[in-house]
Structure formats: structure tokens, C-alpha cells
Amino acid sequence: MSEQIAILKSDISVKFGDNAFKFSTxxxxxxxxxxxxxxxxxxxxxxxxxxxxNFLMDVCGVDYPNREKRFDVVYHLxxxxxxxxxxxxxxxxxxxxxxxxxxxxxxxxxxxREAFDLFGIKFSGHPNLRKILTxxxxxxHPLRKDYxxxxxxxxxxxxxxxxxxxxxxxxxxxxSRYVPLNIGPSHPAMHGTLRVxxxxxxxxxxRAMPEIGYLHRCFEKMAETHPYNQVxxxxxxxxxxxxxxxNIGYCMAVEKLMxxxxxxxxxTMRVILCELSRIIxxxxxxxxxxxxxxxxxxxxxxxxxxxxxxxxxxxLCGARLTVAxxxxxxxxxxxxxxxxxxxxxxxxEMSDGVEEISKMLxxxxxxxxxxxxVCPVSAQDAIEWGYTGPLLRASGVNxxxxxxxxxxxxxxxxxxxxxxxxxxxxxxxxxxxxxxRQSIRIVRQACKNVPGGDYTVRDKGVVLPEKKDVYGxxxxxxxxxxxxxxxxxxxVGEIYSATEAANGELGFYLVSDGSASxxxxxxxPPCFAIYQSFPDVVKGSMLAxxxxxxxxxxxxxxxxDR
Amino acid sequence: MSDTVSDKSLEDMSKSFALTTRLDAIxxxxxxxxxxxxxxxxxxxxxxxxxxxxxxxxxxxxGAEVVRFSPRQADLLVIAxxxxxxxxxxxxxxYQQMLEPKYVLSMGAxxxxxxxxxxxxxxxxxxxxxxxxxxxxxxxxxPEAVLDGVMALQKMIxxxxxxxxxxGWVSPYEINANTxxxxxxxxxxxxxxxxxSGV
Lengths: 562, 199
Known about the structure:
The complex is a heterodimer of chains A (about 550) and B (about 200).
Chain A: H1 2-16, E1 22-25, E2 31-35, H2 40-49, E3 55-63, E4 71-79, E5 84-92, E6 97-99, H3 108-119, E7 122-124, E8 179-183, E9 195-201, E10 204-211, H4 219-224, H5 228-236, H6 243-258, H7 264-292, H8 296-317, E11 326-327, E12 330-331, H9 339-362, H10 365-371, H11 379-385, H12 389-394, H13 401-404, H14 425-448, H15 467-472, H16 474-486, E13 493-501, E14 504-512, E15 520-524, H17 526-531, H18 534-538, H19 543-552, H20 557-561
Parallel strand pairs in A: 2-5, 6-7
Antiparallel strand pairs in A: 1-2, 3-4, 4-5, 8-9, 9-10, 11-12, 13-14, 14-15
Chain B: H1 2-7, H2 10-16, H3 23-32, E1 37-41, H4 44-53, E2 76-80, H5 88-97, E3 103-107, H6 108-113, E4 134-136, H7 143-159, H8 164-167, H9 174-178, H10 182-185, H11 189-196
Parallel strand pairs in B: 1-2, 2-3, 3-4
Helix pairs in contact in B: 3-7, 4-7
């Protein structure tokens, strides 16, 4: 990998001249390029077109109020051919603007709007640089360090129907030839917190515009004001359909930054949890997808299996949905006796369930007519928009981080990665249902080979001692006290760590200043990148197809709005 | 015809086919056993609410299975999830669009108090903008707790518990209130019956 970077470095020196950029590799192995803000667009374009970094995963800001140039703008790039990652960083002063990356990647659109909303970083040339997460009456930029976490600002009105600006038309001016229609946020197909505004010609969509932020719960600000372990319950509530996966993604980032190796037993337990979560997440995606198309039975039938997984989680930790089951360093508890056998029994039941659902939906004539060749997304567009996960694979790109950048021993397991061809809605469900089968395979293999040993590391500076020690001896008590008061403190540094969550790449960009809480924690939510393509994807299709598209994207407001 | 009726005493009538009750009591009986919930699921609690409606816990057993997404057709607003500042005006509008008699169940810590989101964009409890009848604790509450909350509400309806928080309620956003015509917010007949008997 370092060889690759050396080649890249020499290539870039030839193109841009020596000393134009500062290359470095962090202690955890992330490759970083620091550039001046003027050179960033040219550099990004070069990296995309000639260096194989075809994905823009994330754009975010970091605030350093005491620095001359206050903000860092951080781009995370990914090359799918050999799974290479690169971080491009640049500095911008307050009030200064930086050229937009939307001309290079469409995916930059919402990420830049978010950085503008939360930090006030201006991106010149961005076509629609408006607020995205906070409400329209909100004054200030909440993720700046000088904005207090609990300073609320009330909102008293709802924005009228509006659209993105285009070169031909201003977004706030409606066309009198068409019918404007508002859907949501309180609408059965909008899953509670999404709002879609459309302009219709008959039933055909002329323009569409999603409005998000109705569930912006300030996750990133909360993370900055809480100790590392107290952030774990907040991560539960990102993608609440598969809470353990977020726990694991976050803990993995912190552990990597600290250089912790978790025991083999914890790794296997995490794999089992991940795959069970993937199954129940797909249950929601497929079930509610059916509901939005008018098929209620599949949802109720599938929910029986979700309840069974809840029972497994309850046995493990006492909670059903928001489990907070991992800790930095391993798991919170060991599995109770017989738990792995319970999981195996569930796998048998679930296999039958998947076959039933597969027959019920994928073979159903109405379902096929509603989904096949509806709003397809090509592989090229999918990459351009930053699609990951089942949607990207439905478009025909074979990329799964479990295979591309294996973690927790995924390379040991025998499983297939389903890939679609058309990228339409049908393929998305096809991929999801096949992934459920593959997850069952992985869980079976994992449960049959659970390593013995401890379920967590026993580092006094990281993990709380067991309760029997806290109550039983003075050393345990002191240990507990010190860790609670002082908190666990990763070294100064930063890391981007990604896992394959149910919806796609769930990335955590963690900046530590050596204190007991994260300096900055940016979540790269998979459905945020996916949803920004919505206006393009549904343009020219029927309104009912747009509803089916929203359902197939599996938008979970918790991680979309954070 | 009139002769035959006057011949029978009231007691005889009750033995044959009639059942004596108060009109408001039988109206309350109907109301509490046929709640039509509007699932306002904004966050994680919405997923638990699916469990409550789902096959295992089955809210239908308590007469509340007719889930209505139209506020015009619902009489129980189940606020399941965090209400952000951005969402608050919409919540109020939904509540105003519901017809009387209407009840609100706040499900979970976020809806009840903001929960552990003491944050810049989160409303610190939906009771800041709408009158809440039942609070269900938990993050998210177990389905059993939600069922308990619904049963508590049924008891309130049965006992005709006074609801001063509801009677004195005015919308915090008067501008939106004026956009709804009076005719649409007028009470149902049943409501005027229950209200007539000294609530």
C-alpha cells in the first residue's frame, strides 16, 4: 500500500510540481494528502480520473477555533478496484470560500451543504448551497466549537414547496403549468420523517425535491460532549433498524485509533451480531417496501422473525432494539449459556422464512410489474453519487467491504456477494433477500466455531472491571472509579474507519485531541449519499414509482439526519 | 300500540331486551375499545411501535388496530420518537387536524422530555406544543409498556378523567391555527355528549 502511495506521490509531483502537497501516513495507516484550498479541485479531479479513486465517500468540516485558518475541509476518497483509501485535507479561514467538488463528483452535493449548514464553510460554485439539516429559522452554525450544545432555537413555520435551483429555473418559483404536491413528513410512505415535494404533469414527475433534517438530533455534537463509552448509546440510534452494527462500527474506529486488538471471541460475537442485524434490517427494508406497494402480509410475516431476533438480543443484553452491546475493547457481556444454539435454531427458522418471502414477493406478478425496470440506476451513476451497499450491488458493482477490506475475520467465512444487473427496484430487493440467505450462512459458520477465551480485553485504562471486582475488592473499586472519572483517552490523532452496514458503507471519521471525549466524530451515513440522487432518479417517472423508489432506498432517518 | 307499551312496566322491559346505561358511559365504552391510532413514528420508537402493531404483541387485542395515517380519521395520536424543532410545527398541525375527541400518547423518553438529546435541534418534550394524555417511559419502551399506556388511556376514557391540559390548550403557533376553518375542527356528536356531563 505504501508503495502505491509512493507511486501516487511521484505522479502528482510530475503533474503539479514538487512540494505542492504534503503527504503523510498516520500511525494507524491512513494516507493523507494536505493541500492548499486553491489546488483542491484540480487534485480531486486528478485523483478521480487518473489515480483510481472513483468514490467520494465523505466531505466534512472540522473546527479549530484557535487556528488562523479555522476550518479543515476533509474529503475521504475510495478506489474500488484495489480498495484504496485517501484523505484529502485543506484549511479554510472563516468567511473564506473553497471551490465546490460537485463539478468532480455529484456525491459532494449534500455533504457540502451539510458542512455549510453545520460549520458555515462556503463552497463557491455549489448550485444549491442552502441549509440542509437545521430548520430554516436556525441562526448560526451548531458544530462550531463556540456554539453551545444545548442552545435551542424554536421553529414556528414550515417551508413552502421549493426545489433545487437549476441553470434554467429558480427553485422557489413554481411552474403554473404543473401541479405542485407535497408528500410527508407525516405520510405512510415517507416513514415518519421524510418530506418529498414534487411537481407533476399529470402523474409524471417533472421535478422532485426531498427535504431532510426532520430528525436531526445532533448526534455529532452530542458525541463531542460525551465520553467515548457514553457515545455508544447514541450510535444505537443512528440506524435503529440494525443498532448493533453502529455500535460495532464506532467501537472499531476507537479501537483502531487506540491500537487495541480485541479478543477472537469478541470478534466472532460481533460478526454474529452484525449478520443478525443485517437480516433484521433487510426485514424492515423488504417488509416496509412491500407495504408501500400495498402488500401488507409480507411485513407482518417477516416481523415474526424480527421478534425472534429481538428475543436473542434480549437474552444477550436485556434490550430489544437499542442494545448498546459493545464496549471499546470488546463486548459488554459474554453470551449466556446455550445462546449460540438458540441462534442456530433461529437460522433454521429464518431460512424457511426467507424462502417463503422470496416466493411471496419476488415471484408475485404485481410486485414484479411495480418494480422491474422502474427508476433504474446505472453502475456509473451509482458510483458517481456515492452509492454503497445493496443499492450499489443491485446496479452491478461488486463491492462489499466484508470482502474488499475484510475485518473481524470475514475472509474466513464462506459466503457469496449477490450482484444485480439492472439497478432497478426489483434488483434491490433481490439483492437484499439473497443477502439474508448469505448472512444466515455466515451466522451458521460463526456459531459453530466460536473461539473460547475472554469477551473483552482486560486493559485497566480501557475497560471497566467486572462488577464482582468492583464490589469485591479495593483494587477493582479504584480501577472503576479512575476510569469513570478520567475516561478512556485515545492518543491524539485521527482515523477513518468503515464497515459494511446493512445500507452500505458506514464510516466513522474520528478526531481525537487526547481528551476523554471525541474532538470531532463524523458519521458517513450510507443513505445520505443515496438519497441525494433521488430528484435525478425519479425525474420523468410516475408518482407511484417515486414512492417505490423511496421505499427501496431504505432511508433510515436516524442516520440520514443524525 | 300505545296501550301495549303502557301496560308493560320499565322493569319488564329491561328483563326482555333492554339494557339501562348512561349515554356518556356507553359512548366512552365505544371510544375506548375502538381507538384509531395515528402512528406518528419519527424515530427508533416507530420501529418498536411496529412491534406493538405486529403479530406478537398485536394491539388489535385492545381494539386499536385500525391504524390511520390521516389525522382526520384518527383519534389517538401516538407520538413515537424524537420531535425536533423542525418537526414541531408539523406535529401541531397534525394534532389540530384531528377531530374530537382526541387523545395523545407520548411514547418514549425523546417524545416525553427530549430524552438524552439535550441538544440544539431537539424539542425538549412534545408536551411543549401539544397536550399529552399518557407518557410511556423507556428508550424505546417495550411493547408491553406501550400496551400498558394504551390501557391507562382506556381507563382515563372510561372514568372520564378530567383533562385540564387539553381543555386549556392553545396552539403555540397561532398563524397555523387560523388557516384551519372552524368547521373542520368542530366536535363530533359523541364528544358533545361526554362533555355535557360535567367533565
